Description:
Elements: H1 9-19, E1 28-34, E2 39-44, H2 49-60, E3 70-74, E4 91-93, E5 96-102, E6 105-110, E7 113-117, E8 120-125, E9 140-142, E10 151-157, E11 172-174, E12 179-183, E13 189-195, E14 200-201, E15 215-221, E16 231-236, E17 240-254, E18 260-268, E19 280-284, E20 288-298, E21 303-307, H3 308-315
Parallel strand pairs: 2-3, 4-13, 11-18, 14-17, 15-20
Antiparallel strand pairs: 1-2, 5-6, 7-8, 8-12, 9-10, 10-12, 13-15, 16-17, 16-19, 17-18, 18-21, 19-20, 20-21
Amino acid sequence: MFQQVDYNFGDLFAWKDLVRPQLAQPGVVYLDIDEQRNRLVFGVERAYIDRFNEGLQSFLRGTRVPPEAVIVEVADPIQPLELLTDKIRPVPAGVQISRPLGGGSFGICTLGTNALRAGVKGFVTASHCTAARSVVDGSAFSQSTPDGSSQIGVETVDPPFFTGGSCPPGRQCRFSDAAFAAYDSAALSAGAKIADPLLWGVGLGTLQVSAAQPRLSVTGFLFGSPSSGSFLFKVGRTTGGTLGPVIHTCIDGNVANSTITMLCQDQVLAGSGGGDSGSPVFFKGSTSATLVGILWGGSGATYVYSPWIFVFAELGGLIPTAP
């Protein structure tokens, strides 16, 4: 069955070339040959559509394209899909970072928070994500993988373990599994921003970042531990955005297969996985976050984090809300 049309496809195809320069106008989303409507179609963001229509009519008068052959309609902007594992600039918290291990391999962790320390812009991740835990070894970090052009910073602060006092006999202790790395360039930092996943879950969230609201703003931080039962959120490069209740506060925990004891840590009933170490843990508002701590370990169904008060104290007065 044939349908009579106003314009043949060859003409529409040629006219599309003639009007293509209008894609450079503000708010234009797409240009299409709509076969069903037998017209050229511009999709334009609502805020720009009146201005675009005026300019288009003026433009068409200088061409052989019939104005009746062109439709302008409202369209939503096309956003690029962003993953927590992508190379992202400037760099927000919650995304993948890595450290070369040699032989082309690399270790993977999560950037916990951007911060300002003694006037230097940098970021926090887990100390065990560096080459030598609780030693300033100058570990170089990339985002997202080491490829020669992705290095973002170098570790500059990583306090040593201590023994004696509150540390059990034969153990070495800290109150935070956290290290600070200075950015190679201040322009790399996204400041007080956390990547906001599209969907959240108890055991597993998405790695895709929300296109509608790609970032949460860090507007404050908690000095202390939340009460048991409080719901916390975390963003990590492996399990994405997960949420769950605090089940233990201020536990003294031994790190598996080591002589390390982490003092006064908090535990959350929510998913985590390898590579999530360093993740920011926070209270979440609709568009904001209050930083609570830095994730460093877990068992799959739970994770443990170092409260921000200890990260702050051991790394020397970080300001995570700095722009």
